[in-house]
Amino acid sequence: QVQLVESGGGLVQAGGSLRLSCAASGSIFSIMGWYRQAPGKQRELVASVTGGGSTNYADSVKGRFTISTNNAKNTVYLQMNSLKPEDTAVYYCTAKTLRAYTYWGQGTQVTVSS
Hints:
The chain is 0% helix and 54% strand. The chain has no helices and eleven strands. Strands 2, 4, 5, 6, 9, 10 and 11 form a seven-stranded mixed β-sheet that branches. The protein is an all-beta fold.
C-alpha cells in the first residue's frame, strides 16, 4: 500500500521560509516532486527530482526553492525561501513508479502573508 505523508505547511510572513517534507512508502519511485494549486488557478508543477538527481523547477521559484531527497530516495523535501504572497497555495507531494503510475499526497496549505 502506497502512502505519501506530507508535513511542514503553515502560515509565514513574506520573506520567510518553510520546509515541506513528504515521506513515501510502499513502492520504489522513479521521480518525486511537488505541485501547487492556488484559488482560481490551475495546478502547476513546482519542482521535481529523479532518482539520478536531476531537478526541474518552475521559473517562478528558481533561485528561491530547492528540492532534495534523502539517501533512500523515499522522502522528498522542498525548502522554500524568500516566500511571496503569490506562493500561497495548497502544495501536493507526488511520486511516480517506474511505470509512471502517479500517487498523490492529500496536500498541505502554505499561506504567505504580506
